[in-house]
Sequence to fold (390 residues):
Amino acid sequence: MIYLDNAATTRVRPEVYDAMKPYFCENFGNPSSVYQFAGESLQAVDRAREQIAALLGAEAREIYFTAGGSESDNWALKAVAETCAKKGKHIITSKIEHHAILHTCEWLEKQGCEVTYLDVDENGLVSPEAVEAAIRPDTILISIMTANNEIGTVEPISEIGAIAHRHGILFHTDAVQAVGHIPLDVRAMNIDLLSASGHKFHGPKGVGILYCRRGVKLTPLIHGGAQERNRRAGTHNVPGIVGMGKAAELAGEHLEEWGQCQASLRDHLIERVLAEIPYVRLNGDPQKRLPGNANFCFRYVEGESLLIMLDQRGICGSSGSACTSGSLDPSHVLLAIGLPHEIAHGSLRLTLSEDTTREEIDYVVDELKKIIERLRSMSPLYEDFLRKNA
Fold:
């Protein structure tokens, strides 16, 4: 198997798995209990909080554990809407956000909020000028993702954060695809709230964090116990938290090395595909993109058929977000960057890890060429196109 769907999820690294194991059967205490045995679990949770804070340039007490990125996104938007309701009800976001943001915004609109959904350019970039132009006296939150989960474009987060702060507005970023892959510093980047998920950078599934800058009021999304300083009820997922902490530590130690490795292979993949397969488009910004992301649209090809044929050859890829893989509609991200439906339907996202090899990339491109040729040979639209351009 050649796994090129690391934007959907990553394998748990052996070091992460080893760090987690003692907290299943040996140190299984509930960190909220008062006896000494439970204290070992509490120390592990606190250590993980420090490891994740270090990766983000944050303070440990600004890290709140959640069940994943979607919960963190929901929490950030709903908490700000609640705490800032007297100031206003206007939120600014973009049309290419993850559905955890877009669907939360839709829910908030039903509660009386107003949301501005910003357009992006053909590469998926949000314009800082457009953000500033959309600000109103009643704007309470700007939420722009750090990097897009489908096309890999990295947004100008520092500039947008500076604009938000200049106007006294809170700034949230969905950094689920970025944390552990590119350098982030919440202070330098003017970030007030940040969402992340452990399984996107070799941690376990089912655990995430919300960074909340000290001084920003955060009301609970989940009520019950007093965990997470009375802000997020529920018994801690100690093994998951420990795993995410270890994954953050490893990412911090190898960020530059792993990033360079992925970017080199990504560029090799993109160069071969664009040079050797006709009528293909690279989606996303050519330079401002995640190191492991390559997203293409192949004309006269159906993305679902492409994925099935890749799978038959032992290659795992995606046509977009894993959260919408069952949908027959084209990607909202590809439509937002201006692609027509018929081209957006022929998309393929290949996302690498530091374990990906050049030999794997070359095999994938070789097989991809054969698959595209076969699928187009069965397409009447492609036959018409060739006749018209003969």
